Amino acid sequence: MTLERIAVVGAGAWGTALANAAARAGRSVTLIARAEATAAALRTSRQNPRLAGATLDERVAVTAAIGEAAAADAVLLVVPAQAMREATIVLAGVLKAGTPVIACAKGIERGTRRFMTEVIAESAAATVPAILSGPSFAIDVARGLPTAVTLAARERKTAEALARALGSASFRPYHTTDVRGVEIGGAAKNVLAIAAGIVAGRGLGASAAAALTTRGFAELMRFGKAYGARAETLTGLSGLGDLILTCASAQSRNFSFGVAIGRGESPAAAGADKLAEGAFTAAVLIDMAIAKDVEMPVAAAVAAVLDEKLSVDGAIEALLTRPLKAE
Q1: Beta-bridge partner residues of 102
Q2: How far is CA 194 from the centre of its chain?
Q3: What is the pTM (predicted TM-score) of this model?
Q4: Other C-beta atoms lying within 10 Å of the C-beta of residue 27
Q5: pLDDT tens digits for 87-103?
Q6: Which of 43, 91, 44, 89 minimizes the C-alpha distance to 69?
Q7: How many whole angstroms separate alpha carbon 202 and alpha carbon 194?
Q8: Is 309 known to be catalytic?
Q9: What pLDDT was estimated at residue 327?
Q10: What does the alpha-carbon distance between residue 206 and residue 154 come to, in Å, rounded to a whole number?
Q11: pLDDT of 272 strictly over 90
């Protein structure tokens, strides 16, 4: 499989960063923005205002014409999880059959309970769905700092080819065929990162943060097992690795969102400025957990707080007064 031409759909911080990564890997890259004004600004300044201190690689072409994706050998679809279906439907009318489409969002579609590769498969049936996830901040990737992620596709040869196409000295994709495991790790850790942020915002201390992250990971493992994920995937980069990163850094939008709530802001006010994917995933994650009889008290507490069915203090009390049991 020859993958020389890469289209990156979505010119936000993560899309711009991944365009840089693909260019450093030696690929021919086209970054496709939603609006011509955004594309024009990027072409002129080579700066994304969301990535202070990083410059868009001069080898990356920038356009707002979605039709340019037709020439791509593979597409990185870098839009929010809840916008994935709409974007894929548009792409379906452009891409040639068999083109790999790599979802770069971490979430589950509300209403349908579909994972990102399922959304792609339903909306662009002739393409080949894949998923990229792992412990990575856009600014680090944009600047070329060392980063390792996981890239999954159903067929091993496809996953290997995509990893080779995007891999470089600074960006290392590990490949796997465990698509579901990669998707679950990315989606669930966002919800748990909100919980970690709430703990930090409430000033509950490092011990509480460590306990929360550990017990949250146990929930992620239970959920993943119920939905067919492999244990080695959940303990790898796209599961435990991403959880560690996002549960301990203010660079994480989900963690920062939780911090704001922990300090007393309402969920609406806390999420007004930046997209926190976990805010949209929490409720559907719990619905899916209930459907498989999976116990997820930390994630459930987050969902209840976000839906304003429970106060932060009430959620903390509920977790702390749960019956004692074996680990």
Answers
A1: 76, 130
A2: 14
A3: 0.96
A4: 22
A5: 999 999 999 999 999 99
A6: 91
A7: 12
A8: no
A9: 80
A10: 39
A11: no
